[in-house]
Amino acid sequence: MPSRVITQVTLENFHELVPEYIFNQKLMIQNYEDTKELYLSMLKDGYLFTFDRDILIACLTDLTYMYAPGDDVNKDAVIELLVLDGELEDDDDDDDDEDDEVVPETSVNRTINFPPGVDSSLEPSSDPDCPDGM
Questions:
Q1: I need a surface site. Which of 18, 32, 50, 116 has the fewest CB within 10 A?
Q2: How many CB atoms lie within 10 A of CB 17?
Q3: Residue 128 has pLDDT above 60, yes or no
Q4: DSSP letters along 52-115, please?
Q5: Beta bridge partners of 13
Q6: pLDDT tens digits, 53-95
Q7: Cα separation of 67 and 98, whole Å?
């Protein structure tokens, strides 16, 4: 069985290898589904992506927008990746202000019920320490 050549795709060569592959295979990228198919096709053909998956997803999302910038879904996907976590929390707080209801705290019964015959006073015991030291 002949050995298979694996082409390493890194952050440094992503911008060269992926568009070259798209061009050579005559692929059309219109949405993120097309980009996922591109990724799977590249894997099948021996391209190995050797960088963080989160960065890969961001690169593939950007690539989708580059090939189909007229689609608002592609634009929104890129913008969503640019939103900081703090901005999402602030936006959620602003949107839900009128929906927030104050829920009264329920009273919790904190009474300890001791079995009959057990001293229920909270005073320290005058009994000597445990002989085992525990």
A1: 116
A2: 17
A3: no
A4: -HHHHHHHHHHHHHHH-TT-HHHHHHHHHHHS-HHHHHHHHHHHTGGG--PPPPPP------PP
A5: none
A6: 999 999 999 999 999 999 999 999 999 999 876 665 555 555 5
A7: 41
Where on the phi/psi map is residue 94: left (φ > 0), alpha (ψ -120 to 50), or beta?
alpha
Chain mean position to CA 100: 26
The Cα-based distances of 12 to 24, 32, 104, 134 in angstroms read: 20, 22, 56, 64
CA atoms of 120 and 122, how far apart (whole Å): 6
CB-based contact 9:15 (threshold 8 Å): no
Residue 8: phi, psi to the nearest 5?
Answer: -80, 125
Query: What does the pLDDT look like over 44-57, one tens digit per residue?
Result: 999 999 999 999 99
Asked if 78 and 65 count as a contact pair (C-beta separation under 8 A), the reply is yes
The pTM (predicted TM-score) of the whole model is 0.61
